[in-house]
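DM from R.C. (forwarded with permission)

"hey, sorry to bug you on a friday — could you get me a structure for this? deadline for the figure draft is monday and I only need the backbone to look sensible"
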Amino acid sequence: MLQTLRKAGGSLVMTIPKAFTDQNGLTDGSQVELRLEGNKLTVEATARPRYKLADLMAEMPQGLPLVEDWDEMPLVGLEKG
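My reply, with the result:
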């Protein structure tokens, strides 16, 4: 695929094909890994971690204080009742 470089400030930029961004779930602000090997530039989408609630809960320290009847407490900020 042939790309044309454009000047933006003191840098040269090129676009990334939409098919690549869709395939890898990339959006504005996503990070990619760039590798330089001689005259070759490789762009690799970094794997985003996928979490399961059960796994995250298993990492929680035991003995955290429990708040009884937390859902009955009065609103104190911008919560919606």
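R.C.: lifesaver. Strands lie at 6-8, 11-13, 32-37, 40-45.
me: no worries. The two ends are 54 Å apart (CA to CA).
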